[in-house]
């Protein structure tokens, strides 16, 4: 049976490195747990690290966080939908916002719940996902500032999430200037400039980030140690906090090309025949995961000699031909995961979740 492991020690190592760097710069930060898909076992491990702020884009996951630790500050990291306003105010202490009508509804619901709901106003910096346009920001803030039971605790931005626009010093200087505009127009100090995500860490580590950026929200770098800019692992961090382990359920020497008339498979793919493979065979393993659980594109075999051949809905085919290991039916084959792969696996009810170390 396939299962995914979370390595406590490696998670703690990655956390400690990040936390030390942030503390030296007096930067607040929270951990993004949306990849954990509300799994109580893994979320508790994150809370055990001592973090006091948790971020997620699913209200149901924030509900789990609050059930485990009511005192931790929860942040809803996308603009709320109209039909989720009540739950956002109930389970999120802070939310990201870009629409006045939404913030007005949050204000009304906060009054009903006798709460002050905190918001971060997201500003468009060029990646064209969520964000108020810069030229409209002052007027937008002016209207939001009047709403009762709403506290604007920060301004923020997202980059690299849609079109891959990379962060730059100029963009974050621009973001910082919006806080100065609020101070100049309204004589109000905004606590956070929330510009920091995993993609910004290379700038931060190289001291290229404007000092005004004082709030980070980190997921991918914590779990995978990934330097997104250079596509390698940050020094001192682990890239395998998560490990997928799958079981061999068939192991047979088979032809490398199919036999018979070809048509599209259920995924809509048509095989292109490589004639150089006619008459050749390879040792092929079937493992007990498939497209229902993960795309093969997000799997990195620990055994570098293994080749992923293809997948159907619930089985994945490997070519073991060049591996020097003596695999048998029932053996486990392990994989590191890319972020989107881990997200898919965590969202699968068919994959057991385990802790190690």
Automatic annotation (TrEMBL):
SUPFAM superfamilies from the UniProt entry: PLP-binding barrel
Domain of life: Bacteria
Keywords assigned by UniProt, alphabetized: Isomerase, Pyridoxal phosphate
InterPro entries: Ala_racemase (IPR000821), Ala_racemase_N (IPR001608), PLP-binding_barrel (IPR029066)
Cofactor: pyridoxal 5'-phosphate
Residue ranges annotated for the Alanine racemase N-terminal domain, each copy included: 7-225
Pfam families reported in the protein's UniProt record: Ala_racemase_N
UniProt GO MF annotations: alanine racemase activity; pyridoxal phosphate binding
Gene Ontology cellular component list: cytosol
Protein name: Alanine/ornithine racemase family PLP-dependent enzyme
